[in-house]
Amino acid sequence: MVSDTQRITVRIPNDMADNLQDLVDKGEYSTMSEAIRTAISDFIENKNAPDHISKVTVDLPKKKVNEIKNLVQEGDSISVDDAIRNAVRDYVKEKIDQYKKRLEE
């Protein structure tokens, strides 16, 4: 382990600990500590986003995520995040354009 770390002790409900252990058992993380470090890192990254950025978490069916991953592999986007960001941007632009057209009528 890296020497410039700090041990922090937290208490969590048993069901949360069980869920973390399930992630380890499934191979998502090598240890519970790794899962917790990842969660804390994601939390800090989201809280420290620049003022002009608002981070959003999206739950998608695994089938759709796999479809997006296939698009990325085919070169449609550079990452899953980029593909989703582009899709949302295009959707919002289309809706705003539709709204403006209705106002002009």
Give short descriptive properties of this protein.
105 residues, mainly alpha, 4 helices
Low-confidence stretches: none
Shape: elongated
Q: Beta-strand percentage?
A: under 5%
Number of helices: 4
Order of helices and strands: HHHH
Number of strand segments: 0
Helix percent band: 55-70%
**Mean pLDDT reading:** 92
Query: What structural class results from the helix and strand content?
Result: mainly alpha
Largest sheet: none
Summarize the structure.
The chain folds into two domains: 8-51; 56-105. The chain is built from four helices and no strands. It has helices spanning 14-25, 32-47, 62-73, 80-104.
How is this structure best described in words?
- This protein has 105 residues and is mainly α.
- The protein folds into 2 domains: 44 residues; 50 residues.
- The chain is built from 4 helices and no strands.
